[in-house]
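RECORD TYPE: inverse folding
INPUT: structure tokens
STRUCTURE:
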């Protein structure tokens, strides 16, 4: 995901990365017997996949790169795979903080070594970068990830991401408002399709009254 953010815009990477529920729904259909794709979910998958393809192939904003978009897509699939591993193995029975400890404990040294092959290990360190790192540690990892893992342990895998469709909307909006990124017709169209698809995938079926 960080490679994607180096190569493409926040808005584009947000739309593609938060297609994760699409890949999670497909994996759940294959590996979780009681989480099959219904006609409504299939329609949602069609919308979302069309949106992802649109975001990658159409470039009316003239920015970003294909490799950055594909990196964001790979990150989305990796995130979905992580959720499936937690949901379908005994790891799901482990307390969320222990799950997080193992994920960070294994990935941190691997990523530090990998970072040596992607430019300088530390790039122009400034106070804003330290603040961002602290935000990642305290809010994203310590609070957000533990809450995410806890939800995965008690709710259906494809339903955990019920509100994740808000994130690409916020990513595009904040990329435009804060970073001055261009938001073209193609990106807006792709965003709309992905949001519609994810809403359909995660919408609960009506219970007869």
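DESIGNED SEQUENCE:
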């Amino acid at each position: 995901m960080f490679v994607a953010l180096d190569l493409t815009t926040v808005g584009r990477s947000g739309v593609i990365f938060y297609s994760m529920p699409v890949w999670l729904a497909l994996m759940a259909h294959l590996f979780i017997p009681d989480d099959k794709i219904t006609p409504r979910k299939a329609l949602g998958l069609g919308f979302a996949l069309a949106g992802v393809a649109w975001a990658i192939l159409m470039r009316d904003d003239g920015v970003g790169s294909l490799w950055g978009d594909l990196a964001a897509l790979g990150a989305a699939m990796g995130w979905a795979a992580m959720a499936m591993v937690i949901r379908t193995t005994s790891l799901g029975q482990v307390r969320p903080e222990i799950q997080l400890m193992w994920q960070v404990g294994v990935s941190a040294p691997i990523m530090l070594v990998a970072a040596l092959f992607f430019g300088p290990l530390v790039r122009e360190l400034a106070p804003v970068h330290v603040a961002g790192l602290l935000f990642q540690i305290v809010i994203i990892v310590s609070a957000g990830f533990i809450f995410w893992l806890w939800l995965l342990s008690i709710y259906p895998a494809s339903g955990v991401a019920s509100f994740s469709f808000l994130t690409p909307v916020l990513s595009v909006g904040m990329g435009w408002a804060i970073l001055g990124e261009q938001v073209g017709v193609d990106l807006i169209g792709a965003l709309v399709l992905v949001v519609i698809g994810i809403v359909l995938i995660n919408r609960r079926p009506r219970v007869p009254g």
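NOTES: The CA atoms of residues 56 and 70 lie 8 Å apart.
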